[in-house]
């Protein structure tokens, strides 16, 4: 019965990036969803009983007292006191019963245990940052990742969410309920899943021009793999590029920009663990080379070559060159000399040559966790319509750009 109700409740959507992926709050691998499904059984059953009862009473009354069957003057009477009491008392009992069920479920779902894995979530136009407040990186600051939430399976994960600008909606239906991300307000609640896999998350609150492009991935790992990721992320320091390599030239541009052409430094807005780049206006790029998504999930690079694949390289190049063109509302500066908006005002962007943009991209691709800590490897994509995706995230196809994320 629970499975049938859950299936009926499932809100099934298809992601437009890469292979299509099932999104449903009928996913019973999540304890949160199982509890909501249990509570819903009673609500649905009572609704069906009320519908059938009211429909029967309506049709019975209409049929019994049809005009062609009753030509005499209707009897005049005060009313039916017993019926009136029943019509008041029964709904009150039903509402009280459902209220008690709701309170029970809230008492189970809302408390945050001390032993929960704690992750801080920041939503901004139009991207997400995930920080691990209990894990301090050896290079300083908390371990943080942009647009890809890594969490352990088979335990509660306490998400503390806020927003840096407008109200956003954080919702990955497969792992739990949705919550509003509001400026200057911290909300903590539990999500969980018993099944390792990659799940789709989206912003569920209209928040601006690229609301539909404000996506993220949830990568749920078994405890051993999660511990491996966290240990590697804690010890991570960005590699030092080889002298005169494209990565070295890209590192210099990333850190300093190109003042002669007005090109701004990426480090002013982005953090890279183990370097002096400590910007907070954009997503953390410390493990960009390990990530498989770009533009807050607008593009995916899941072929074995990842960001070295020609299509993925082209997407990354276009993103760095003119982010607002490929994602409306993106607040990244342009690097082709065109104008972009800053607090509602048009500002002329700086200029980098195509080779310089490729150098910056080469530096970003070099920012990788060790192979054993690559959380995408062999992690199945839940509900993907691509058979290869269901076998391994490594074999999925690279998606094509769509009109309209931030890194």
TrEMBL record:
Q: Which PROSITE patterns match?
A: COX2, COX2_CUA, COX2_TM, CYTC
Which keywords accompany this UniProt record? Copper, Electron transport, Heme, Iron, Membrane, Metal-binding, Respiratory chain, Translocase, Transmembrane, Transmembrane helix, Transport
Cytochrome oxidase subunit II copper A binding domain mapped to chain residues:
114-232
The enzyme's E.C. designation: 7.1.1.9
Q: Where is the Cytochrome oxidase subunit II transmembrane region profile domain?
A: 17-113
Tell me which cofactor or cofactors this protein depends on. Answer: Cu cation
The segments labelled Disordered in the record are 379-407
| Ranges that cross the membrane | 38-62, 83-103
Its annotated function is as follows:
Subunits I and II form the functional core of the enzyme complex. Electrons originating in cytochrome c are transferred via heme a and Cu(A) to the binuclear center formed by heme a3 and Cu(B).
State what protein this is by name. Answer: Cytochrome c oxidase subunit 2
What's the source species' lineage?
Bacteria, Thermotogati, Deinococcota, Deinococci, Deinococcales
In the UniProt record, the gene name given for this protein reads: coxB
């Amino acid at each position: 019965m629970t499975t049938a109700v859950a299936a009926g409740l499932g809100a099934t959507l298809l992601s437009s990036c890469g292979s299509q992926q099932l999104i449903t709050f009928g996913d019973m691998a999540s304890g949160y969803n199982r509890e909501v499904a249990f509570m819903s059984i009673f609500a649905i059953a009572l609704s069906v009983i009320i519908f059938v009862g009211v429909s029967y009473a309506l049709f019975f009354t209409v049929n019994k007292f049809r005009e062609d069957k009753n030509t005499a003057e209707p009897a005049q009477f005060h009313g039916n006191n017993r019926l009136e009491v029943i019509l008041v008392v029964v709904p009150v009992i039903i509402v009280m019963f459902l209220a008690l069920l709701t309170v029970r479920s809230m008492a189970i779902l809302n408390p945050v245990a001390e032993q929960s894995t704690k992750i801080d979530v920041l939503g901004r136009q139009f991207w997400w940052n995930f920080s691990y407040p209990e894990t301090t990186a050896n290079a300083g600051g908390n371990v943080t990742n942009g647009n890809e939430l890594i969490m352990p399976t088979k335990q509660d994960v306490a998400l503390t969410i806020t927003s840096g600008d407008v109200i956003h909606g954080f919702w990955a239906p497969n792992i739990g309920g949705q919550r509003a991300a509001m400026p200057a307000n911290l909300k903590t609640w539990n999500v969980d899943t018993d099944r390792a896999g990659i799940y789709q998350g989206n912003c569920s609150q209209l928040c601006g021009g690229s609301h539909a492009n404000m996506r993220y991935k949830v990568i749920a790992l078994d405890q051993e793999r999660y511990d491996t990721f966290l240990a590697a992320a804690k010890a991570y320091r960005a590699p030092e590029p080889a002298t005169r390599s494209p990565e070295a030239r890209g590192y210099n541009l990333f850190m300093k920009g190109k003042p002669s052409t007005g090109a701004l430094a990426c480090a002013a807005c982005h953090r890279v663990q183990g370097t002096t780049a400590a910007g907070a206006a954009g997503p953390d790029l410390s493990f960009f080379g390990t990530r498989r998504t770009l533009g807050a999930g607008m593009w995916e690079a899941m072929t074995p070559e990842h960001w070295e694949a020609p299509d993925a390289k082209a997407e990354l190049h276009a993103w760095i060159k003119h982010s607002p063109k490929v994602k409306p509302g993106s607040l990244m500066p342009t690097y082709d000399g065109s104008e972009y908006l800053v607090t509602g005002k048009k500002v002329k962007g700086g200029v980098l040559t195509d080779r310089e943009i490729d150098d910056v991209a080469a530096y970003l691709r070099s920012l990788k966790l060790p192979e054993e800590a690559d959380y995408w490897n062999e992690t199945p994509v839940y509900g993907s319509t691509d058979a290869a995706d269901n076998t391994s995230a490594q074999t999925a196809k690279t998606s094509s750009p769509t009109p309209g994320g931030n890194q």
